[in-house]
Amino acid sequence: MDAADLDYRARTLSGCIPSSVVSRLVELGHTDEVEFQAGRGEWFCAREQARLLAERGRRAAALEVLAPYVATGWWTAVEAAAGMLEEWGRSDEAIALARPHAEAGKRSALRFFALLLARHGKGDEAFDLLRPHVGDGWLAAALVDIAGGAGRDDDAAALLTARIEEPRTCDDPTYRRRVIEPSNAVDLLAAIRERQGRVDEAIDLLRTRETTSVNDRDQLADLLARQDRIEELRAYAAVESLGTAAQCLAEVLEERGDVEGAIAVYRQPGGSLFRRNHGAVRLAELLVRHGRGDEATDVLRSLADASGGAEDWIVDMLCTHYADQGRPEDGLAYLDTLKERDGEEGWEFFRIRLPLLVACGRRDEAIDLAMAHPEHDTWAIAELLADAGRTEEAIALLEPDEDVVGPVLAWHLIDLGRVRDAVALLQRPKPTPSTLPQDDLTARGTSP
Q: Do 399 and 414 meet the contact criterion of CB atoms below 8 Å apart?
């Protein structure tokens, strides 16, 4: 085995058996094939085989499966083995296994190793390991997590404060603002201040951010909710343009039993188009949770009927809701209205029609219509065929595009018991680039 080849195949899912197919093999009882392929360089098979052995209490055998992969120096395998060792209470062995990779400067190994140290009473060592990399937002977040348990909050705060007070000039001459690195320095410092009980300082810091929403959460809104500062949260939600603060407020009110108050938050006028659209969807979800499906239908229908509202994702949401409410025929009627208005039905809207037809007991009609559509998606049609028990037809449809839909085709081959054909298809060699990206600090760039 070769670490670079293992890494390439695992990242690109090229020339290997992906985890989704491995799960299907196990689900259908083909564990002998998984075990066999685990010994032939198939990483996802090896990982699953090790997991299965560990579940049966065969820990030594599990490590033996991973050993050839670990021996290549490939970090992903080392991380998996170290994780098992830690889970079994063998933290010293896990630390010894991971240490050389962290010391080599591998970014993901640094984070894993530092958190591992911190979990096992070595917080100061973990903190000092990450300290030079505070300019890396991902590693800085780990450093802040570690600082709390290690009693190093003041040290972490000092590092971040220095970064905030001394931003660097962006290399792009057209960008005139000063750049703070890491970009999440303010957020991390605010987290420390809240942890220290200095809540007002945390709030003041968060009010200086340029980016307020990360992964659909707003740290300031969440902080105000945790601190039970509801009136401040309400005021913030009224002016925050993306609606994430309003979502936080509505969640708090719903948790406290004030459903009408939560509904009122989402019904407030104003804000960006993004806020209005996503707020309407969240309102519909809230109404459904409380058995008010008809009201949710009205909300989503109004959203779809609004000027510019008939986007495919909104129409999909409305039609899925119709189906969930046992009214798929109403979803089809709505799509018919759009088709009549536009004079045609592109695939982005036609695909929404297919599950509605199936829900109405018209699967064969759905298949025939999909096959006749000029933009038909063979993948979607194959799924319809397979769900109808016509797996051979699904395979025949997919085979001309096997280089693109290999895992899907393999899944159906396995369903018919053609395991070897599926494996051969997935393991077909594909060209690899002459150089592979390295997951180390040099390749990603160190902090200034």
A: no
Which spans in 174-229 are helix H? 185-195, 199-206, 219-226
Contact, 218 vs 207, CB < 8 A? Answer: no
CB 38 within 8 A of CB 13: no
Residue 443's pLDDT is what? 39
b (16+ CB within 10 A) / e for 14-30: bbbbbbebbebbbeeeb
User: Tell me: the pLDDT tens digits for 388-416?
Assistant: 999 999 999 999 988 888 999 999 999 99
Confidence of residue 436 (pLDDT cuts 50, 70, 90): very low
Only one residue has tokens 């971040």, namely 160
Local structure of residue 230 (DSSP, 8 states):
H
| Residue 35 to residue 52: CA distance in whole angstroms | 10
For residue 206, the model assigns a pLDDT of: 97
Q: Which amino acid is at 86?
A: E
The DSSP secondary structure of 381-425, one letter per residue, reads: HHHHHHHTT-HHHHHHHHGGGTTTSHHHHHHHHHHTT-HHHHHHH
Task: Tally Cβ neighbours within 10 Å of residue 374.
Answer: 8
Q: Which two tokens stand for residue 127?
A: 């903190």
Residue with tokens 């002998």: 32
**What are 253's two structure tokens?**
């009110």
User: Which positions ≥6 away from 337 have C-beta within 8 Å?
Assistant: none
Residue type, 56: R
pLDDT on residue 177: 57
